[in-house]
Amino acid sequence: MPQIRKLVIVGGGTAGWMAASALSRVMGTRNYQITLIESDEIGTVGVGEATIPTIQEFNTLLGIDENDFMKAVNGTFKLGIRFQNWSAPGSDYFHPFGVYGVDMGGLNFNHFWMRYHKAGGSGDFGLFNPQTLAARKGRFGRMAEINPNAPNVNYAFHFDASLYAKFLRGYCEKNGVVRQESKITSVAQHPETGDITSVTLANGQAVSGDLFIDCSGFRGLLIEQTLKSGYEDWSQWLPCNRAVAVPCDKVGPATPYTTSTAQEAGWQWRIPLQHRTGNGYVFCDAYMDEAKASELILQRLDGKAQAEPRVIRFVTGHRKQMWNKNVIAMGLSSGFLEPLESTSIYLVQHAVLKLLKYFPKDEITPSIRIAFNQDMLRAYDNVKDFLIAHYKVTKREDTPFWAYCKHMDIPDSLKMRLEMFQYHNDARVTSLELFTEPSWFAILVGQGLVPRSYHPAADEMPQEEFRWRMQKIRDGSTGLADMMPSHESYLAKTCPSP
Ligand code: FAD
C-alpha cells in the first residue's frame, strides 16, 4: 500500500475538476482516496472558454468521446485566432493551429515562403495554411471523417467553462471521487515540517490528506495564504490587469476561430459557442477605469448582452514555487497569464500531467519538487515571451497604452528570440516549447516583422521546381479547406448542443 494515498483537491473550477478527473482515471480510487472540496458560496471564475489543440490529448487520456463532450459543453471548433488591429488599426492576421506548407529537404517551410515573398510573391502567408483558409470561409470538419487520405487538420474547442466543470464532475463522481461542498475555514500544518495535514470545513469537519492540490483560484488558499510561496510579478511586460466579461446572444453562424481585437487600453475577445457568444475586454487599469471598459464592451457587442459586465482583477505572473511542501498549485492559484493565446487550461493540463509523471509513492523528495517547479516555470516562461511579443511588435502608438507597449523594455530571452527571428527566421530557442516556428512566424510576420534573411539552403532548389512546389502547396491548402462543410452544418450534424 503506498504511503501517499489521501489526495485532497481544494477547488472545483476547471483546474480542480481537471486534476480530479485525470487522477481518478490514472491512479484510480481503489488505493487512493480522492476528495474535492468546493464552495458554492465562493463560486468559480467561470470564464475561460477557448483552448488549444493539446486539450484533445487530455480528453483522450480520460477516454472521453469528443462528440459527447462537445454536446455537453455547447462547444464549437476552433482553428486558430484572428488578430485584428494589433499591428496597426485596420490590420488583420490569423494565427492558425498547424503548420504552413510542408517542410522540404529538412527545412522549415517558412524559409521557402521567404524566398517566395522576397521574389515578389504574395505577402498573404495564410494561402499556404488550410486552417487559415477554412477559417476565412467559416468551414470546419475533422479530416478523418471527411477524407481519411487527406492530412489531419489541427483544431481545438471553444466551450462553456462552467459546463465543462459540470461535465468533468459527472465523470469524476462515476470514478469514485468524493465531492464536499463547503467553505474551508482553516488549514492545519504539521508543527515541524510545515506540511498541510488537514483543512477544516465550515461545519467543523476536518478533511485530512497526504497530498493537497490547491485549485482555489487567485486566492491560493494553501500555496500562498498558508505556505507563503511568493509571487513573481510580470506586469511590467504584460501590463493588463483587469478583464470585464459579458456573454451576448449569438448573431450569425459561429466562427471556427476566436477573435482578438486590439483596443485602446488592451484587447477584446470574442468566443463563439453554440448557444451564445463570450466577450471580454482585457485592459490595464492605469489607462482605463473599470466603468469605462464596461461601457465600451457593451457598445461593441454584436448581440444583446445576456448579463451585466463582470470585472475580474488579476496580476500577471506566477507563484515562485508551484509545488511547495505537500501542496501543488494548479490553475489560477499557480499564476496567471492573460488569455491572449488561450493557454491557462493548457497550463493546468501540463501541471496535471507533470504531477502524474512525478507522482510520489511514499515520500515527496526535494528532487521531485525541484523537477516539477522547473518544468512549470519553463512552461510559463515560454508562454510569457510569446505573449509579450504580440504587444512589443506593434506599430501602434495611438494611445498611451500602445505607446508604452511599443517602447517597453522586454526580457533578454525575448530580445534574443526577436534577433534570431530577424536573422535566422526562427524564434524558438529549444525544441521543448509549446509555441513552435509556425506560431512565431504567424504572429511576428502577421504584425509586420518580416525576417531579413532565411536559410541559404532554401535557395538551392531550382527555380522551376520551386515554383511548381509552391503552387502545389497552395492548391493543396485550398483543396483541403474546400473539402470541409460549413462549421454550423458540421456542428448540427455531429455534436449539436441539447
Ligand atoms: P476558479 O475557477 O476560481 O475556481 C476556484 C475554486 O476554488 C472554486 O470552486 C472555489 O469555490 C474554490 N475555493 C476557493 N476558496 C475556497 C475555500 N475557502 N473553500 C472551499 N473552496 C474554495 N483559460 C483558457 O484556457 N482559455 C481562455 O480563454 C481563458 N480565458 C480567461 C479569461 C479570464 C478573464 C480569466 C480570469 C481566466 C481565463 N482563463 C482562460 C483561465 C481559466 O478560466 C482558468 O485557468 C480556469 O478556469 C481555472 O480556474 P481555477 O479552477 O484555477 O479557479
TrEMBL record:
Signal peptide positions (record): none
Alphabetical list of InterPro entries matching this protein: FAD/NAD-bd_sf, Flavin-dep_Halogenase_NPB, Flavin_halogenase, Trp_halogen
Highest taxon of the lineage: Bacteria
PANTHER family recorded: FAD-BINDING PROTEIN (PTHR43747), FLAVIN-DEPENDENT TRYPTOPHAN HALOGENASE (PTHR43747:SF4)
Protein's recorded name: Tryptophan 7-halogenase
Organism expressing this protein natively: Asticcacaulis machinosus
Source taxonomy: Bacteria, Pseudomonadati, Pseudomonadota, Alphaproteobacteria, Caulobacterales
